[in-house]
Write a structure and sequence with these properties.
7-stranded mixed sheet, 2 domains, 6-stranded mixed sheet, 15 helices
Length: 504
């Protein structure tokens, strides 16, 4: 049986594992896969696990559950694919990445349907994630052709010193559920551009989106073994990736706790690591700020994806002189948000991803109320029930509350007063993490002063949406190591080699 015939046959089998009507009505049913993807084939395992729609809590699909066996098979496939991929012309890798971008746009509606079904974000946001992802494939299609080296002036007669860059090797990529397509696009596009095959461990919450992207990559011409997708037993898969000498690089987006564990494990085989970890983003509104713009930026940053983004605001610091006015403007915008199933027309807020995430929001709100905060809007589970929680605004908050030290990762905006710039900076920097920060001011001198002193990797000044493919994404302190996107992102997947040529 040919590879194409095999893929077509398993597409029909997938229908027996899918229980969601919207998923059964895709324009291209070949994108809906419930099996592991190893060495160019869809592989069904002996065990499976359920994928839930967080909006309905209905089991929408049964997906093959991988473990160490499947992961090791994927690693071996990637290792075999490494040499041919490194030999492929940069222009050829570039063309494949461009084709992926084109196909993602052609199948945007289907990808958004799959994403909304298993992740819960509204359909418009899902489409936005796809367009955002496409940007990385387009960007690194160009960067693939710009992996330059150097000729260094020699230190001895009749010699040349040459510096080249080459693929680091097989990459293990571990991604979260909140932006399952975008987080992998940032990693795979750069890795493939550099000539690195990838073993991808997506979140068990969103494996269908991962498989859909794997199907698109195959259609685009990604060679056999260069992309493998294994989801299931996180401990077994993670251990296999970390213990293998064939895996030379780990790229991870997720919690700081897990990132620290991976760093420890990577030491045993001295793997290269890049880590995009937790955040605790501050949002500062100075007295001279455009409050209408600040309220809109706060809304965009805080409530996108129901507050489930690593760069979303977790702590609001508002100057005392404009505190009440800002609260009023922000509250009006929050009140206009519409909670509901992601496919519901006009819905802007979906459910939390699971019960643990829901319970954390409940705990943080209860803690704030207990410690004297005032609920301005929301503050309780939504009438829809399930995993829906009201978009919530809290005033009179203080630094003793849990939200100040723990990333809520949900639709909770808590506002603290400050009186001086020094106080605002002290409050903002009082965190073990340092991913992103935002602030609003019309004072150019103040803008430079604050930007220089904020201990973060990314800053938005008078803007609440900062991530894109052309700028480096990453943090400092316990928010991680390395950068994704931009011209710097491909360096994470390259080794530098020095060659001395004598006898010339």
């Amino acid at each position: 049986m040919t590879r194409l015939a095999y893929m077509l046959s398993v597409c029909m089998l997938n229908k027996n594992h899918v229980r969601e009507s919207k998923l059964m009505k895709l324009n291209n049913p070949d994108l809906l896969q419930t099996k592991a993807f190893i060495n160019g084939f869809w592989v069904e395992t002996s065990a499976s696990y359920a994928v839930l729609n967080p909006a309905s809590l209905v089991n929408v699909a049964q997906v093959s559950k991988c473990g160490a066996k499947e992961c090791n098979a994927a690693i071996n496939a990637a290792h075999t694919a490494l040499t041919p991929l490194k030999k492929m012309l940069a222009k050829e890798r570039s063309a494949i990445l461009r084709k992926i971008a084109t196909l993602m746009l052609e199948h945007k509606d289907d990808l958004a349907t799959i994403l909304t079904t298993e992740q819960g974000k509204n359909y418009t946001e899902a489409q936005g994630e796809i367009i955002y992802s496409v940007g990385f494939f387009e960007w690194f299609a160009e960067e693939a052709k710009r992996i330059y080296g150097d000729i260094i002036p020699a230190t001895k007669p009749n010699t040349k010193i040459m510096v080249t860059k080459e693929a680091v090797g097989v990459v293990g990529a571990i991604t979260p559920w909140n932006f399952p397509l975008a987080m992998f696009a940032r990693k795979f596009a750069a890795a493939f551009a550099a000539g690195c095959p990838v073993v991808w461990k997506p979140s068990e919450e969103t494996p269908l989106s991962a498989n859909a992207l794997a199907a698109i990559c195959t259609l685009a011409g990604v060679p056999q073994g260069c992309l493998n997708v294994v989801s299931g037993d996180a401990i077994q898969i993670g251990s296999a990736l970390m213990q293998s000498n064939k895996v030379r690089k780990i790229t991870f987006t997720g919690s700081t706790r897990t990132g620290k564990l991976l760093m420890r494990q990577a030491a045993d085989t001295v793997k290269k690591v890049s880590l995009e970890l937790g955040g605790n983003a501050p949002f500062i509104v100075f007295a001279d700020a455009d409050l209408d713009a600040a309220a809109e930026g706060a809304l965009q940053s805080k409530f996108r994806n129901t507050g489930q983004t690593c760069v979303c605001v977790n702590r609001f610091f508002i100057h005392d002189a404009v505190y009440d006015e800002f609260i009023a403007k922000f509250a009006a915008k929050i009140a206009a948000l519409k909670v509901g199933d992601g496919f519901m027309p006009g819905a802007t807020q979906g459910p939390l991803i699971n019960q643990m995430a829901f319970d954390k929001v409940v705990t943080h709100v209860a803690d704030a109320k207990l410690k004297g905060a005032t609920i301005v809007h929301g503050g309780k589970p939504h009438a829809l029930g399930g995993l829906f929680y009201e978009p919530t605004l809290i005033s009179n908050a203080n630094t003793s509350m849990l939200f100040n030290t723990e990333e809520t990762f949900g639709p909770l905006a808590a506002c603290i007063r400050f009186k001086t710039t020094e106080e605002a900076l002290e409050l903002a920097n009082n965190s073990e993490t340092g991913l992103a920060a935002y602030f609003y001011t019309k004072d150019l001198a103040l803008a430079f002063q604050v930007a220089e002193q904020l201990e973060v990797g990314m800053i938005g000044i008078n803007d609440g949406i900062i991530s894109n493919e052309v700028a480096p994404f990453g943090g400092v302190k316990e928010s991680g190591i390395g950068r994704e996107g931009s011209k710097y992102g491909i360096d994470e997947y390259l080794n530098i080699k020095y060659t001395l040529i004598a006898g010339l």
